[in-house]
From TrEMBL:
Its main location: membrane. It catalyses: heme b + (2E,6E)-farnesyl diphosphate + H2O = Fe(II)-heme o + diphosphate. The chain crosses the membrane at residues 31-50, 56-76, 97-117, 123-143, 225-242, 248-267, 288-310. Pathway: Porphyrin-containing compound metabolism; heme O biosynthesis; heme O from protoheme: step 1/1. This is Protoheme IX farnesyltransferase. GO terms for cellular component: plasma membrane. Converts heme B (protoheme IX) to heme O by substitution of the vinyl group on carbon 2 of heme B porphyrin ring with a hydroxyethyl farnesyl side group. It comes from the Bacteria. CDD domains: PT_UbiA_Cox10. Keywords: Cell membrane, Heme biosynthesis, Membrane, Transferase, Transmembrane, Transmembrane helix. Gene3D superfamilies: UbiA prenyltransferase. It is found in: Cell membrane.
Amino acid sequence: MKRGATAPLGLSEQLDLSDVRDWIALLKPRVMSLVVFTGLVGLLVAPGHLHPVLAVTAILCIAVAAGAAGAINMWYDRDIDAVMRRTANRPIPAGRIRAQAALAFGIVLSLASVMVMGLATNWVAAAVLAGSIAFYVFIYTMWLKRRTPQNIVIGGAAGAFPPMIGWAAVTGGISLEAVVMFAIIFFWTPPHFWALSLFASGDYARAGVPMLPVVAGARETRRQIWLYSLLLAPLGLLPTLIGMASWAYGAVALALGAWFLHAMWKVKHDRQDAEGLSLTRDAPARAGFKFSILYLFVLFAALAADILILRGSGL
Ligand code: HEM
Ligand SMILES: CC(C)=CCC/C(C)=C/CC/C(C)=C/COP(=O)(O)OP(=O)(O)O
């Protein structure tokens, strides 16, 4: 058939792949991958049984909720994202997705993820899921981010909820083990983010976001990174100390903790100029940021492996 003005579009024309990529980018998939992984670990280590289909549904709900919260964050932050080099090409500031459409997308996905979580698992898990979306959107994004350099310390709690949500999906409640996993991520977030902010502080200064290096300087930021690292390293051992995991996990946590302290010690004593993007490619802050991600991934993987192996062996 010859294509006239009214002829239907072909599938590839209707579904432009670059559009799909932009909608996916709204969900901040790279950052959320680790959020979802920690949620999965919470679900795997929880005592009890959840049908595999429901378990997969629960993890999808965490992924969709985290992504939806990211989309609403990008809607709200479109003005500052446009100013920062790292974020200027995001779909909203770059004009590829309308702000209102992104907001609607985020709200619909948020509501859907909470409803499906409640129906598939239980309403405790759904409530904590709703709470973490609300925390990220209202407490971090809309309230603290533009007001105080403590924004990520308090707001970071949002990213610490997923293991608790996974745990609640299986058990229908929250117990000490879930709180311990929450605490590990809570104290991990400041070194994770402030290491990055040391080499992205020029961006934040331009956008008027009061991140710690902008307000208090690089030296104080390095000091705070070190203090939180000192708290985090022993916290990693808590699962063993409360009898949740064995000493095999404890040994991994100890080694990782020592490695984390080593990486952050180098950040603390780095004397390079921290303004803008002027840190060299191999600057300790860059290495520390990257290592923070590896640390959390390996720590949670070790926790899951330890508990599943112990359970499998009947010990
Ligand atoms: C308030 C808390 C947090 C803040 C402000 C924060 C901020 C950031 C920023 C600005 C980036 C840069 C990369 C990008 O723009 O895509 C990043 C990367 C990343 N964050 Fe965080 N983060 C926080 C908490 C978390 C949590 C709780 C997790 C997971 C448990 C996480 C996991 C990651 C990962 C995996 C990356 C690397 C993404 C990549 O490969 O590009 N973050 N974070
Ligand atoms: C289940 C659920 C709802 C989880 C929420 C997960 C969550 C809050 C993760 C926080 C990580 C994150 C994307 C911070 C970005 O900060 P930013 O928004 O200031 O970074 P940006 O400058 O890159 O936009």
